[in-house]
Amino acid sequence: MRLRLALITAAFALGATACGTNASSPADVSSPASTDPLDRFGPSPIVPDGPLDPSVAADLDRVFDSIPTGIDTDALARLGGSSDARVAWLLSDILRFIRPGTNESETTVRAWEAVTGTAADGDGSDWGNTTDHLIAWDTPAPPGYVEWKRQLFELVEPGWIPFFEDVEADIDWRLVSWGGVLIDDRPVDRTDVGCPQGCIPALNDPALTDAEGGDWYADDAIVFGLEVDGEAVAFPKNIMEVHEMVNMTVAGRRIGMPYCTLCGSAQAYFTDEIAEGVDLGEHHTYELRTSGLLTRSNKVMYELHTQSVLDTFTGRAVSGPLRELGVELQAVTVRTATWGDWKQAHPDTGIVAKDGGIGRSYAPDPLGGRDDNGPIFPIGDVDARLPVQEPIVGVITPGGPAAFRVGALEAALADTGDTISFGGVTIATDGAGYTATGLDGQPLAAHQAFWFAWSQFHPDTALWDGGG
Q1: In contact, 208 and 348? CB cutoff 8 Å
Q2: Cα–chain-centroid distance for residue 291?
Q3: 415: which residues sit within 8 A by CB, 6+ positions away?
Q4: What is the distance between the alpha carbons of residues 245 and 268, in angstroms, rounded to a whole number?
Q5: Residue 304 lies in a domain
Q6: 431: number of CA atoms within 13 Å, CB side?
Q7: Is the same domain home to 283 and 226?
Q8: Which of 107, 356, 420, 467 has the lowest tally of Cβ within 10 angstroms?
Q9: Is residue 3 predicted with pLDDT exceeding 60?
Q10: Measured CA distances, 170 to 163, 254, 321 (Å)
């Protein structure tokens, strides 16, 4: 039974409906560069070293022990006088779950401002503004941070308990926040019943139609297309915005396909290559799901059978049994294109059926433009080479990550016979999204994403911006 905090507000919740031409001259190479946090966030506070003062730790215990019934505001106020900026992370975590404008909220904000020496006001929520500052400053977390944080998060969703139990998890818990929904932990054989507890429900083995059967979908609407051993499948964006995860078989291979609406990124991984020593019980493939958690506005996905968190952008296991075994899923190229362009380039394609095969209806724009005006969750400071939501095509090469600005690719590859070469990668198009190959001519996995998401996971990425 999930315990609902009396202080949680629905105002924060974000429900399920609501990631050739040769240009290889040195001039094309851009060095990593970030915005100066001082420009936007001001100077970072002085942070002490060593253990917390015992009185501070005792007040943190009082605050977090009191959350289910009503926060101890006296202890909160004393935390504000502690002069230890590290506790600001826990104060921001609390702000994520309490109603703005309440005495508890205002006391938490005042405590945050006192320990950081910075005003929390801004254009967004107190939680968003305070967290943005801490990310940009890279403020250290206090000793014992994860245990207090887990106490709060496990009240909201007991399904997250396994994620916190791995003390060796390769997760920066400072950056983990609640996405407004709960975990999708439905049994594999119950994925057709929706998600009454309030999760983002994965779509398993959706029904497909041929291209002609996809005439319900507008030619200028976006699909995410993939091709495995000559079999092409298109995933309509409006369906992916509702489910954000698909598990299915394509050309005899099992595929897991997460879509992070917040970071404009659809990706795909083979989930039928099981590492030696992995215990999936009666199951034979990994099952990818949405956890309901975020890290810097990117979805946190997990594997259902092992309760292991995987990095959505890299496929690398970062907690649980899969982390212990060093599992990293093999990526598959996903191309972002219009449905008209995709079916012209791939006339034999399948497309997910209008009802997903589960008798459901999908609005043409389920999110109603929710993400059109910039990130709605904290991301801190962002690499300044491109605007935060500039679409790029990202590729991991033997020499490191590389990003190609989509607008520049569109201009350079207007003739689909052309290619772009940069950083040991050749980018080509058949008129429906982009593919990448390495120096040896072998395919490299590629996918489209917003710049802020790609650059935060790959801060040392090279950038091709059209040569100018």
Answers
A1: no
A2: 10
A3: none
A4: 9
A5: yes
A6: 12
A7: yes
A8: 467
A9: no
A10: 11, 26, 12
| pTM: predicted TM-score of the whole model, two decimal places | 0.91
57: burial class by Cβ within 10 Å (0-12, 13-18, 19+)?
middle
Q: Which of 342, 135, 140 is nearest to 226 (CA)?
A: 342
Residue 222 maps to a domain? yes
Are 422 and 22 in contact by the 8 Å Cβ rule? The answer is no
Taking CA atoms, 138 is separated from 36, 45, 86, 288, 452, in Å, by: 12, 10, 10, 30, 17
378-427 pLDDT, tens digit per residue, is: 999 899 999 999 999 999 988 899 999 999 999 999 866 789 999 999 99
Assess contact for 350 and 210: CB atoms under 8 A: yes
Residue 374 lies in a domain: no
C-alpha to C-alpha distance for 379 and 135, rounded to whole angstroms: 7
Q: Based on the structure, what is the number of domains in the chain?
A: 3
Within 8 A by CB and 6+ apart from 9, the residues are: 97, 98, 99, 100
CA 376 – CA 353 distance, rounded (Å): 30
Maximum Cα–Cα distance across the chain: 69
Rounded Cα distance, 409 and 310, in Å: 30
Kind and range of the H or E run holding 135: helix 126-137
Query: Which residues are CB-contacts of 450 (< 8 A; sequence separation ≥ 6)?
Result: 263, 264, 265, 388, 389, 390, 391, 392
CA distance 298 to 265: 9
414 and 452, same domain (yes or no): yes
Residue 233's φ and ψ, nearest 5 degrees, are: -135, 140
Q: What span, in angstroms and rounded, lies between the C-alpha atoms of 117 and 113? A: 5
Domain closes at, from 352, 378, 408: 352
Using CA atoms, how far apart are residues 280 and 288, in angstroms rounded to an integer?
13
Q: Judge if 339 and 417 occupy the same domain.
A: no
DSSP 34: B
Using the structure block, give the residue that is written with the tokens 């205002």. Answer: 106
Are 24 and 421 a contacting pair, CB within 8 Å? yes
Q: Which two tokens stand for residue 408?
A: 């520049």
Q: Are 231 and 356 in contact (CB under 8 A)?
A: no
Same domain, 230 and 345: yes
Same domain for 206 and 154: no
CA distance 124 to 114: 20
Q: Looking at the structure, tell me whether residues 144 and 277 fall in a common domain.
A: no
Distances (CA, A) of 216 to 53, 161, 223, 246, 359: 63, 42, 13, 20, 15
Name the residue range of residue 97's domain. 36-165
How far apart, in whole angstroms, are the C-alpha atoms of residue 435 and residue 76?
53
Cβ atoms of 157 and 292 closer than 8 Å: yes
348 and 357 in contact (C-beta within 8 Å)?
no
58 & 110 share domain = yes
